[in-house]
């Protein structure tokens, strides 16, 4: 997380000096989200079931802090597009449009990566792991939680898995609502952005 924030700040400052503040903000959002995704995926994806359990049971961020981070990641993408729309004119060129749209996609994916770790931590909390039925005799690893999280993010609900614990259901509900609002805002703003930039 700290590496992603530092990389994002460095990219923002450098781009702002070379171009302008608007592009700097957009470049910073892209760099931070990309670093978070790359490092998080590289670390979590290869873990087997035993390593996943050990990692997920380590002390994590407090739930409220984690939810704030998740919400902040999603709002950062929307802020990138909103910034471009507000500035308009000469700043709203193809490069800025590309950075805004890429930033939205990357922060959307970062949101679901964060929830991947959240679901794993909840699953392995307590004396007996459980709460999500992956319909497999094998013990789950992070790849299973990636599947679950991105499925919720893209469909706004669970797919072929069953959730049997109230605490996990409440996180799924928040995740689904945030994904729905995020997705609706992205579609509406992206259409407005593309029409404004490439038609005018």
TrEMBL record:
The keyword Transport does not apply. This is Membrane protein. Residues 1-21 form the signal peptide. InterPro entries: DUF1345. The chain crosses the membrane at residues 31-47, 68-89, 95-115, 177-199. It holds the Pfam family DUF1345. Keywords: Membrane, Signal, Transmembrane, Transmembrane helix. It comes from the Bacteria. The keyword Signal applies.
């Amino acid at each position: 997380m700290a590496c992603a924030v530092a990389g994002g700040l460095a990219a923002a400052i450098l781009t702002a000096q070379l171009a302008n503040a608007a592009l700097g903000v957009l470049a910073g959002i892209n760099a931070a989200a990309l670093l978070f995704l790359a490092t998080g995926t590289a670390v979590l994806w290869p873990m087997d079931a035993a390593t996943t359990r050990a990692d997920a049971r380590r002390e994590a961020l407090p739930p409220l802090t984690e939810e704030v981070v998740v919400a902040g990641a999603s709002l950062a993408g929307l802020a990138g597009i909103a910034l471009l729309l507000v500035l308009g004119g000469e700043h709203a060129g193809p490069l800025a449009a590309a950075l805004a749209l890429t930033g939205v996609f990357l922060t959307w994916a970062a949101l679901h990566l964060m929830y991947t770790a959240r679901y794993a931590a909840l699953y392995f909390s307590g004396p007996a792991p459980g709460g999500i039925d992956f319909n497999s005799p094998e013990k789950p690893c992070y790849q299973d939680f990636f599947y679950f999280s991105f499925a919720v993010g893209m469909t706004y609900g669970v797919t072929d898995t069953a959730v049997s614990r109230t605490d996990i259901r409440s996180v799924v509900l928040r995740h689904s609502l945030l994904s729905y609002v995020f997705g609706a805002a992205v579609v509406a703003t992206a259409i407005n952005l593309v029409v404004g930039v490439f038609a005018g």
